[in-house]
Amino acid sequence: MSQTFKTNVNNTFEFEIDEEAILNLDAIQVSDAEFHVLHHHKSYHVEIEESNFNNKTYQVKVNNNTYNINIFNNLDALIKEMGFTIGSTKHVDSIKAPMPGLILEIQVEANQEVKENDTLLILEAMKMENIITSPRDGIIKSISVTKGDAVEKNQLLIEFE
């Protein structure tokens, strides 16, 4: 069964894309964050400027036009439809690295009060800066990393009280 992704661009355009379309995309990776794409015999220069894996949001530049993109799969849509998104983040007690990378910045301290979606730290992975945000309101209990640390996927970064 092919997976379908719901995509929202600039909070204006919504469309669905399936795995087959992604697999058939004529794209060549030029650098870590840049691609050359051919679509209907037309050439596009695509650059991923920012990505936030926690929120599934991306800022992508296509031929010098910047687009803000949100991507959701069927499970994300089902969870939202069932109303679990509001309370689901309340039980998060720790933040772990979503991928291996390098800690570029830590913007919080132990015992600091944070609000949902506040920036906690910036993780560089594959030459892209990934903003790690707070999944809930709370108080930072401890920070297990320091600026400049190399981290592995699922490594503990921050704990909440």
From TrEMBL:
Residues 83-161 form the Lipoyl-binding domain. Signal peptide: none annotated. The keyword Manganese does not apply. This is Acetyl-CoA carboxylase biotin carboxyl carrier protein subunit. InterPro entries: Biotin_BS (IPR001882), Biotin_Carboxyl_Carrier/Decarb (IPR050709), Biotin_lipoyl (IPR000089), Single_hybrid_motif (IPR011053). PROSITE patterns: BIOTIN (PS00188), BIOTINYL_LIPOYL (PS50968). The keyword Cell cycle does not apply. Keywords: Biotin. It comes from Hwangdonia lutea. It comes from the Bacteria.
